[in-house]
Amino acid sequence: MPIFHWIIPALWLVFIVYWGVSALNAKRSIRDAGWWWRHLAIRLAIAPLIIIAVQIPGIRHALQAALSQHPSSMLAQATGVLLTGLGIGFAIAARVYIGRNWGMPMSRKEDPELVTGGPYAFVRHPIYTGILVALLGSVIGYSLMWLPVLLLSVPYFIYCARREEALMCEQFPAQYPAYKRRTKMLLPFLL
User: Fold this and answer.
1) CB of 59 closer than 8 Å to CB of 53
2) Could you give the number of structural domains in the chain?
3) Is residue 1 included in any domain, yes or no?
4) Considering the domain boundaries, does residue 104 fall inside one?
5) What are the start-end ranges of the H helices in 2-73?
6) Which domain does 155 fall in, by range?
7) pTM of the entire predicted model
Protein backbone atom coordinates (compact mmCIF):
# COMPACT_ATOMS: atom_id res chain seq x y z
CA MET A 1 0.00 0.00 0.00
CA PRO A 2 1.44 3.41 -0.96
CA ILE A 3 2.74 5.44 1.95
CA PHE A 4 0.61 8.46 1.03
CA HIS A 5 -2.49 6.37 0.28
CA TRP A 6 -4.72 7.97 2.92
CA ILE A 7 -3.40 11.54 2.87
CA ILE A 8 -5.11 12.67 -0.34
CA PRO A 9 -8.56 11.28 0.64
CA ALA A 10 -8.10 12.88 4.08
CA LEU A 11 -7.37 16.25 2.45
CA TRP A 12 -10.53 15.96 0.36
CA LEU A 13 -12.52 15.04 3.48
CA VAL A 14 -11.24 18.17 5.24
CA PHE A 15 -12.24 20.21 2.18
CA ILE A 16 -15.76 18.72 2.03
CA VAL A 17 -16.41 19.13 5.76
CA TYR A 18 -15.13 22.71 5.79
CA TRP A 19 -17.17 23.56 2.69
CA GLY A 20 -20.36 22.14 4.15
CA VAL A 21 -19.98 23.89 7.49
CA SER A 22 -18.93 27.25 6.05
CA ALA A 23 -21.79 27.26 3.53
CA LEU A 24 -24.20 27.61 6.45
CA ASN A 25 -22.94 31.18 7.05
CA ALA A 26 -23.12 32.45 3.44
CA LYS A 27 -25.38 35.28 2.38
CA ARG A 28 -28.68 34.25 0.90
CA SER A 29 -28.78 33.74 -2.86
CA ILE A 30 -31.22 35.58 -5.08
CA ARG A 31 -32.63 33.22 -7.68
CA ASP A 32 -34.56 33.98 -10.81
CA ALA A 33 -37.34 31.69 -11.99
CA GLY A 34 -35.13 29.59 -14.28
CA TRP A 35 -32.15 29.27 -11.96
CA TRP A 36 -32.91 25.78 -10.64
CA TRP A 37 -33.65 24.35 -14.08
CA ARG A 38 -30.45 25.75 -15.64
CA HIS A 39 -28.28 24.32 -12.89
CA LEU A 40 -30.05 20.96 -13.02
CA ALA A 41 -29.75 20.81 -16.82
CA ILE A 42 -26.00 21.45 -16.71
CA ARG A 43 -25.41 18.73 -14.15
CA LEU A 44 -27.76 16.26 -15.84
CA ALA A 45 -26.00 16.77 -19.17
CA ILE A 46 -22.78 15.45 -17.64
CA ALA A 47 -24.28 12.19 -16.30
CA PRO A 48 -25.23 10.64 -19.68
CA LEU A 49 -21.81 11.52 -21.07
CA ILE A 50 -20.14 9.62 -18.25
CA ILE A 51 -22.50 6.65 -18.61
CA ILE A 52 -21.93 6.48 -22.37
CA ALA A 53 -18.17 6.87 -21.98
CA VAL A 54 -17.81 4.00 -19.51
CA GLN A 55 -19.77 1.70 -21.84
CA ILE A 56 -17.23 2.05 -24.66
CA PRO A 57 -15.01 -1.06 -24.31
CA GLY A 58 -11.65 0.72 -24.61
CA ILE A 59 -12.64 3.38 -22.13
CA ARG A 60 -14.15 0.82 -19.76
CA HIS A 61 -10.93 -1.23 -19.80
CA ALA A 62 -8.77 1.86 -19.29
CA LEU A 63 -10.99 3.03 -16.43
CA GLN A 64 -10.86 -0.37 -14.71
CA ALA A 65 -7.08 -0.40 -15.06
CA ALA A 66 -6.82 3.16 -13.73
CA LEU A 67 -8.99 2.39 -10.72
CA SER A 68 -6.71 -0.46 -9.74
CA GLN A 69 -3.47 1.52 -10.12
CA HIS A 70 -1.72 3.67 -7.59
CA PRO A 71 1.48 5.53 -8.34
CA SER A 72 4.44 3.43 -7.25
CA SER A 73 6.94 6.27 -7.29
CA MET A 74 7.46 7.98 -3.95
CA LEU A 75 8.14 11.20 -5.89
CA ALA A 76 4.76 10.98 -7.69
CA GLN A 77 2.98 10.33 -4.41
CA ALA A 78 4.72 13.21 -2.64
CA THR A 79 4.11 15.56 -5.59
CA GLY A 80 0.45 14.58 -5.63
CA VAL A 81 0.05 15.13 -1.90
CA LEU A 82 1.80 18.51 -2.18
CA LEU A 83 -0.36 19.69 -5.10
CA THR A 84 -3.56 18.40 -3.48
CA GLY A 85 -2.70 20.11 -0.20
CA LEU A 86 -1.73 23.38 -1.89
CA GLY A 87 -4.85 23.35 -4.05
CA ILE A 88 -7.22 22.62 -1.19
CA GLY A 89 -5.40 25.15 0.98
CA PHE A 90 -5.70 27.82 -1.72
CA ALA A 91 -9.41 27.07 -2.24
CA ILE A 92 -10.10 27.21 1.50
CA ALA A 93 -8.07 30.43 1.87
CA ALA A 94 -10.14 31.98 -0.93
CA ARG A 95 -13.34 30.76 0.72
CA VAL A 96 -12.28 32.24 4.06
CA TYR A 97 -11.33 35.53 2.39
CA ILE A 98 -14.59 35.89 0.46
CA GLY A 99 -16.51 35.12 3.65
CA ARG A 100 -20.27 35.43 3.53
CA ASN A 101 -20.13 36.55 -0.13
CA TRP A 102 -19.47 32.97 -1.24
CA GLY A 103 -22.24 31.21 -3.10
CA MET A 104 -22.95 28.28 -5.34
CA PRO A 105 -21.55 28.74 -8.85
CA MET A 106 -23.37 31.34 -10.94
CA SER A 107 -25.57 32.60 -8.10
CA ARG A 108 -26.44 36.18 -7.15
CA LYS A 109 -26.13 37.24 -3.52
CA GLU A 110 -28.09 39.71 -1.45
CA ASP A 111 -26.00 42.83 -0.77
CA PRO A 112 -23.03 41.66 -2.87
CA GLU A 113 -19.52 42.99 -2.31
CA LEU A 114 -16.70 42.90 -4.85
CA VAL A 115 -13.77 41.05 -3.28
CA THR A 116 -10.42 41.76 -4.98
CA GLY A 117 -7.87 41.21 -2.21
CA GLY A 118 -6.17 38.15 -0.75
CA PRO A 119 -6.22 35.21 -3.19
CA TYR A 120 -8.54 37.26 -5.43
CA ALA A 121 -5.65 39.64 -6.13
CA PHE A 122 -3.90 36.83 -8.05
CA VAL A 123 -6.81 35.26 -9.96
CA ARG A 124 -10.50 36.08 -10.27
CA HIS A 125 -11.63 32.55 -9.38
CA PRO A 126 -9.16 31.19 -6.81
CA ILE A 127 -11.59 28.58 -5.50
CA TYR A 128 -11.80 26.98 -8.93
CA THR A 129 -8.02 27.27 -9.32
CA GLY A 130 -7.47 25.54 -5.99
CA ILE A 131 -9.87 22.73 -6.77
CA LEU A 132 -8.28 22.13 -10.18
CA VAL A 133 -4.77 22.04 -8.67
CA ALA A 134 -6.00 19.62 -6.00
CA LEU A 135 -7.57 17.40 -8.67
CA LEU A 136 -4.31 17.41 -10.64
CA GLY A 137 -2.47 16.41 -7.47
CA SER A 138 -4.96 13.61 -6.90
CA VAL A 139 -4.36 12.30 -10.43
CA ILE A 140 -0.58 12.36 -9.94
CA GLY A 141 -0.40 11.13 -6.37
CA TYR A 142 -3.40 8.89 -5.83
CA SER A 143 -4.99 7.37 -8.90
CA LEU A 144 -5.87 8.00 -12.51
CA MET A 145 -9.50 7.59 -11.46
CA TRP A 146 -9.37 11.33 -10.72
CA LEU A 147 -8.54 12.13 -14.36
CA PRO A 148 -12.15 12.09 -15.65
CA VAL A 149 -13.16 14.34 -12.75
CA LEU A 150 -10.36 16.76 -13.62
CA LEU A 151 -11.16 16.69 -17.34
CA LEU A 152 -14.86 17.36 -16.70
CA SER A 153 -14.14 20.03 -14.09
CA VAL A 154 -12.00 22.23 -16.35
CA PRO A 155 -14.75 23.12 -18.87
CA TYR A 156 -17.38 23.25 -16.11
CA PHE A 157 -15.35 25.75 -14.05
CA ILE A 158 -14.54 27.85 -17.12
CA TYR A 159 -18.25 27.94 -17.97
CA CYS A 160 -19.14 28.88 -14.38
CA ALA A 161 -16.42 31.54 -14.28
CA ARG A 162 -17.67 33.18 -17.47
CA ARG A 163 -21.27 33.18 -16.23
CA GLU A 164 -20.22 34.59 -12.87
CA GLU A 165 -18.19 37.30 -14.58
CA ALA A 166 -21.21 38.35 -16.62
CA LEU A 167 -23.17 38.66 -13.35
CA MET A 168 -20.34 40.61 -11.74
CA CYS A 169 -20.18 43.03 -14.68
CA GLU A 170 -23.91 43.67 -14.20
CA GLN A 171 -23.59 44.15 -10.44
CA PHE A 172 -20.33 46.15 -10.50
CA PRO A 173 -20.22 47.90 -13.90
CA ALA A 174 -17.55 50.40 -12.85
CA GLN A 175 -15.23 48.23 -10.74
CA TYR A 176 -15.36 44.72 -12.23
CA PRO A 177 -14.04 45.48 -15.74
CA ALA A 178 -10.96 47.15 -14.19
CA TYR A 179 -10.43 44.17 -11.87
CA LYS A 180 -10.83 41.83 -14.84
CA ARG A 181 -8.16 43.72 -16.80
CA ARG A 182 -5.55 43.44 -14.04
CA THR A 183 -6.10 39.77 -13.04
CA LYS A 184 -6.34 36.47 -14.90
CA MET A 185 -9.32 34.13 -14.64
CA LEU A 186 -7.70 30.94 -13.27
CA LEU A 187 -3.92 30.90 -13.71
CA PRO A 188 -1.81 33.91 -12.71
CA PHE A 189 -0.12 35.52 -15.74
CA LEU A 190 -1.60 32.89 -18.14
CA LEU A 191 -5.37 32.30 -18.21
Assistant:
1) yes
2) 1
3) no
4) yes
5) 7-23, 35-55, 57-67
6) 7-182
7) 0.78
Is residue 126 a contact partner of residue 91, using CB atoms and an 8 Å limit? Answer: yes
Residues 6+ apart with CB under 8 A from 104: 29, 39
Among residues 61, 69, 186, 77, which one has the least CA distance to residue 123?
186
Q: Which amino acid is at 102?
A: W
Mind listing the pLDDT tens digit for each residue in 131-151?
A: 999 999 999 988 877 888 898
For residue range 158-185, list pLDDT tens digits in order.
988 998 899 889 889 999 999 999 999 9
What is the CATH classification number for the domain harbouring 139? 1.20.120.1630
Tell me which residue of 89, 91, 58 sits closest to 186, measured CA to CA: 91
Taken in order 99, 166, 170, 44, is the CA torsion positive or negative?
negative
Q: Of 66, 86, 57, 65, which Cα lies nearest the Cα of 151?
A: 66
Nearest in space to 187 (alpha carbons), one of 100, 90, 113: 90
In the chain, how long is the greatest CA-to-CA distance? 55
The answer to the question of residue 77 being in a domain is: yes
> How many helices and strands, by DSSP H and E, does the chain display?
7, 2
